[in-house]
Amino acid sequence: xxxxxxxxxxxxxxxxxxxxxxxxxxxxxxxxxxxxxxxxxxxxxxxxxxxxxxxxxxxxxxxxxxxxxxxxxxxxxxxxxxxxxxxxxxxxxxxxxxxxxxxxxxxxxxxxxxxxxxxxxxxxxxxxxx
Amino acid sequence: xxxxxxxxxxxxxxxxxxxxxxxxxxxxxxxxxxxxxxxxxxxxxxxxxxxxxxxxxxxxxxxxxxxxxxxxxxxxxxxxxxxxxxxxxxxxxxxxxxxxxxxxxxxxxxxxxxxxxxxxxxxxxxxxxx
DNA sequence: TTCATTGGTATCCATGAGGTAACTAAGTTC
DNA sequence: GAACTTAGTTACCTCATGGATACCAATGAA
Lengths: 130, 130
Known about the structure:
mainly alpha, DNA-binding, 11% strand, homodimer, 3 strands, Arc Repressor Mutant, subunit A, three-stranded antiparallel β-sheet, extended
């Protein structure tokens, strides 16, 4: 980062970090990155791992990740074609915070589901009481 | 988690953790949580902090966070009204992984912007060369 | 009586993310 | 020469997200 620039700040709508931060929340991108944690994988295998993603959307996701330097795309001169996707160093570095977030989500599923039930019950009571 | 259930897995489209994981990537939710890190805040202040979010969308976001047990909403009987939003314990626990992710995004802005430039240049060369 | 304040709602509308389905290249096998 | 394979592309469509705008409730101040 140039020292003349303000520090990156996701709360600033004009700061690129905000865009990047939100890209991580992309419906498929972060899942793909986590699948790639286990090493290089080809397109069709990736599709099976991520489950129920159409080729168009998976391609879009992969192109974006490639463009952002998070993954590499290696085409093997074979027929039928073989294309491997692999995390770059940058992509691997993302894996760490992403994994913590995934673990948080997986750990707190019960708390959140409970909170939802309680919230819905309170709504019901409000309706009955009102 | 009930021991009879399979462990939570964000890669399983039927696992609630996937929905929760993706909710974190919501355009506004994770920003709101990070603003609330500094303590309780009222609606209008929150709007200023998050920047350029319409009241409708902010309300939607807050309701969802409240429903999921991440924040509390406290209405003070005043006129004009005063409503404070505050992180719950659960919300605070999310703050930790979320902050790591934010720091990752802010730290790697330059790498990603570089990667984009390189990618675009490569595209240009391919066009010129072809 | 009218305005200002705060925390929203209600309504309408545009965008785009994502889904469906069909199609292609190019060589290998039957 | 027809079918199969992988890794996509293309055209088309739908629906949810989010944005713009206007409005409201309740009360104190001017």
